[in-house]
Design a protein that fits this description.
single chain; about 180 residues; alpha+beta; Immunoglobulin-like; four-stranded antiparallel β-sheet; 4 helices; about 15% helix; elongated; disordered N terminus
């Protein structure tokens, strides 16, 4: 039996230092036709002075809000371990109909507890959500189609605009969930 290798105290020290580095990302989440964007600390270590730079601006909430410029992405002084800060981007239908960017490159910058800077580059391709089928709830419909009366939600739009992703696919909007 060959002798077992033992690590030196220097190697152990490097391993523990490396594991104390926060791991911060920007992520997109697709849920029932809605797109969300989040700033996430995946690690068990706090991150400081977190900021995100996007390669191009993109808008949400019907096109009225430049989500890429939100204060959330400019500077978060402290991001606790395993913390997720998420905000609604838009309905996927509205986002893709406006032809917002689908290839989004983000550079996340942050510091560890010792003040050492770290950078992570992430590329998201939102096109993967264009062909995803889902059941539309009344809330998602309200985001996609402005009501004609204060309390009225449209029934089941049948125009080509109501299809999701591939225009040849049948829309699932006729399947409304009861409240």
């Amino acid at each position: 039996m060959p002798p077992r290798k033992t690590s030196t105290s220097g190697e152990a020290s490097k391993r523990s230092e490396g594991s104390a580095v926060p791991d911060v990302i920007v992520d997109f989440r697709f849920d029932q036709g809605l797109l969300y964007i989040a700033l996430v600390n995946l690690s068990g270590f706090s991150a400081y002075r977190v900021s995100v730079r996007f390669d191009k601006p993109f808008h949400g909430l019907g096109g009225d809000c430049e989500v890429s410029g939100l204060r959330l992405f400019r500077r978060v002084e402290f991001l606790a371990p395993h913390k997720r800060i998420e905000t609604l981007l838009d309905s996927s239908q509205a986002y893709f109909r406006r032809r917002e960017p689908t290839l989004i490159k983000a550079t996340v910058s942050f510091r560890d507890a010792n003040g050492k800077p770290h950078t992570r580059r992430i590329i998201h391709d939102l096109k993967i959500y264009q062909d995803v089928s889902y059941l539309v709830s009344r809330e998602a419909t309200a985001l996609s189609f402005p009501p004609t009366a204060p309390s009225a939600l449209p029934a089941a739009p049948s125009t080509e605009e109501s299809t999701y992703g591939n225009l040849k696919r049948q829309s699932l909007l006729q399947f409304q969930l009861p409240r």
